[in-house]
Specification:
With 254 residues, this protein is of the alpha/beta class. It has helices spanning 53-63, 69-87, 125-134, 163-166, 183-194, 209-218, 246-251, and strands spanning 26-31, 45-50, 94-99, 104-109, 115-121, 139-140, 143-147, 154-159, 171-175, 178-179, 200-207, 223-229, 232-233, 239-240. The strands form three sheets. Strands 1, 2, 5, 6, 7, 8, 9, 10, 11 and 12 form a ten-stranded mixed sheet that branches. It starts with 25 loop residues before the first strand and ends with a helix.
Length: 254
């Protein structure tokens, strides 16, 4: 009996496996001081960039111009799931006693962890379900920010954060697929800290060194988790080589 397997385009790798085997799924890199005509310089920065083959494969599909909005949304969802897994790798667990069908057992639990997801509207909405798939008990708080195309500065248009709730959670994950200038995320962190947040991490699919530098300078205590760190920003403030406008490509408005 001959079996025929039909692989899903989302799961098919379609590439030649590397001859080297990696034992970790993320690496912390240290960037040299960044210089550009628009900024002076920043201190040495560190950011966790995924090295997982699935993330690399799915990111390649995500970047392609031929990827339609349906597949783009699915890929954002899947990459966010993998980044969420990596972002919690340093989270302390609680030892608990449980009963298995065979007998008592000591286990590890994250049930004590109170997590809030903060997707930056609108592009961050595409990452929300992926994070919730891994962390289904998380709270969800929305922040509306957009980048003024002339000044490249963040503009607030929606913020319902409550100080009594923000101060309760043990971890906040900011979700924004594109970390370009970093202005919107810096503004989001400012808002959260003003409400009492003390433990914040950023999940982004792509970033430019300029944006990472701005966040690190303003909030050195915030950890950043990426699928990839690209080359630079162009004169229009887009990440190069990037993937275009993540919001437009997710929602079919390009």
């Amino acid at each position: 009996l001959k079996r025929t397997w039909h692989a899903s385009p989302l799961l098919s790798l379609r590439h030649t496996p590397s001859t080297s085997q990696k034992t970790t799924t993320a690496t912390t890199i240290h960037l040299p001081p960044f210089h550009s005509p628009k900024t002076k310089s920043t201190k040495e920065m560190s950011v966790s960039v995924s090295t997982h083959p699935l993330v690399k494969h799915k990111l390649t599909l995500l970047r392609k111009t031929s990827t339609d909005h349906k597949l783009f949304r699915e890929l954002v969802h899947e990459i966010t799931m993998l980044l969420s897994y990596e972002a919690l790798s340093d989270t302390a667990t609680e030892t608990i006693q449980i009963e298995t069908p065979v007998g008592p057992c000591e286990g590890e639990s994250l049930s004590h962890l109170d997590i809030a997801l903060v997707p930056i509207l609108r592009a961050g909405l595409g990452m929300m379900d992926g994070a919730l798939h891994i962390l289904p008990s998380s709270r969800v708080w929305h922040l509306g920010l957009y980048r003024d195309e002339s000044s490249l500065k963040p503009v607030h248009y929606y913020n319902k954060l409550r100080e009594d709730l923000v101060s309760q959670v043990s971890l906040i994950l900011i979700l924004d697929p594109m970390l370009a200038t970093g202005g919107s995320i810096v503004a989001a962190i400012d808002c959260l800290k003003q409400k009492g947040a003390t433990n914040i991490k950023v999940l982004a699919i792509l970033a430019a060194p300029e944006g990472v530098a701005n966040i690190t300078k303003a909030h050195p205590d915030v950890k950043i988790f990426l699928a990839a760190l690209d080359s630079h920003l162009n004169d229009s403030g887009y990440i190069v080589p990037g993937l275009g406008d993540a919001g437009d490509r997710q929602f079919g408005t390009n």
